[in-house]
Amino acid sequence: QAQVQESGGGLVQPGGSLRLSCATSSKFYGDYFIGWDRQAPGKQRERVAMFNSDGSIYYASSVKGRFTISKDDVRNTVYLQMNNLRPDDSAVYYCGAPGTQHWGQGTQVSVSA
């Protein structure tokens, strides 16, 4: 079982903000480059943001300029700040290690008026 736990999801109105948190073990945090995926009903799973091994950050084009991934090395936690949310951002958001099977159970984000 992946040593990650997502939190911070919920229901928000269009234009609102949410911050998702991904708490991990120190080993997991040190071993992997962590990212966020999302999956909406009937749609393919999509990579939203991630830290790359070269120090760069990847964002999906659909969230660029609205979402920010960050991390706290003391708390072994990765965050996803989501601003100006839209209904099509509604999905289950997963935190984990891209390229591996180590992912959390997900947290639901719903954007609706």
Short description:
The protein has 113 residues and is mainly β.
Describe the structure in your own words.
With 113 residues, the protein is mainly beta. The chain has one helix and ten strands; from the N terminus they run E-E-E-H-E-E-E-E-E-E-E. It has one helix at residues 26-31; strands spanning 4-7, 10-12, 18-24, 35-39, 46-51, 57-59, 67-72, 77-82, 91-96, 107-111. The strands form two sheets. The chain has a six-stranded mixed beta sheet, with no helix packed on it. Strands 1-3-8-7 form a four-stranded antiparallel beta sheet. A hairpin with a 6-residue loop joins strand 4 and strand 5. The longest helix is centred in the N-terminal third of the chain and has 6 residues, at 26-31. The radius of gyration is 13 Å and the shape is globular. The mean pLDDT is 96.
Number of helices: 1
Distance between the termini: 36 Å
Structural class determined from secondary elements? mainly beta
Order of helices and strands: EEEHEEEEEEE
Keywords, please?
113 residues; 6-stranded mixed sheet; 4-stranded antiparallel sheet; 1 helix; 10 strands
